[in-house]
Amino acid sequence: MKQDGSRALFQYWNRLRGTRTAPLRTEVEPADIKTLLGDTFILERDTRGEPIFRLAGTRLCAVYGRELKGFAFASLWRDRDRRMMSRLVSNVFQSKSVVVFDFEGFSREDRSTQFEFVLLPLDGGLESPRCLGALSVGPKPFWLGAEAVTDAKIGSVRFVEPDRDPFLVDRRRTPRLDSNDAIQIGRSSDAMPLNNARRIRHLLVLEGGREP
Fold first, then answer.
1. What is the pTM for the complete model shown?
2. Per DSSP, what are the bridge partners of residue 57?
3. How far, in Å, CA of 108 to CA of 88, rounded?
4. Of 5, 132, 144, 198, which is most buried with the most CB atoms under 10 A?
5. Which residues are within 8 A (CB) of 79 and not within 5 positions of it... i.e. 6 or more apart?
6. What's the average model confidence in pLDDT over 78-99?
7. Terminal Cα distance for the chain, rounded
8. How many beta carbons lie within 10 A of that of residue 57, not counting itself?
9. Under the phi-then-psi rule, with left for phi > 0, alpha for psi from -120 to 50, and beta for the rest, what region is 163?
């Protein structure tokens, strides 16, 4: 994890869960993460099985220039990436995966900056899976909050097993996955197809790109 906000939320989540795969959703106390609240969100699954925003912080909404509560997480992404993003969150819901990914966000005026999302599972029972997350940005550009992010270039998607390696490796140092290596994500039969993945130990990296 490259951004301080991602690390801080991960550490809080990790303390809450103890030896469990995920903490209960009722254990999250907003007062404990008050400095992060503007950038955090909670996702839930709607009646169609799609992840939607149950709650979204004010700074997060300002980045996208709209209130996100009730909107689909996949709506933040271009059409060709939406199915992948929906299935990514489904892995967090079903397999209690911890996911971090970086992307370059573009405004309508084509200004850009780097962001990082972290997705952390919450135990809400089989009928009500939840996900706690945060959006972090590096050095904040002058235009952020005044110009909405309307497009994104996905850099990488990384999965981590918190008990083995709580901080993720830099994808620039990740070797190519050998074609003979088997790839598995979590325990779900609905795992994402990862034809272009790269692996280092138990971590996987998915490369994305922005169409010209």
1. 0.76
2. none
3. 26
4. 132
5. none
6. 91
7. 28
8. 18
9. alpha
Spell out the long-range contacts of 137-145 with Cβ–Cβ below 8 A and sequence spacing 24 or more. Answer: 137/3, 137/63, 137/113, 138/2, 138/3, 138/113, 138/114, 139/113, 140/113, 141/111, 141/113, 143/107, 143/109, 143/111, 144/63, 144/113, 145/59, 145/62, 145/63
Q: Confirm if 132 and 44 have CB atoms less than 8 A apart.
A: no
Q: What is the Cα–Cα distance from 128 to 43, expressed in whole angstroms? A: 10
List the domains of the chain with CATH numbers: 4-207 (3.30.450.20)
Residues 35-62 have pLDDT tens digits of 999 999 999 999 888 999 999 999 999 9
- Per-residue pLDDT at 182: 30
Looking at residue 175, its pLDDT comes to 31
Rounded average pLDDT over 121-137: 90
The two counts, helices (H) then strands (E), for the chain are: 3, 8
Q: Is the dihedral of CA 10, 12, 17, 19 positive or negative?
A: positive
Query: Which two three-digit tokens encode residue 111?
Result: 């200004």
d(CA 65, CA 18): 36
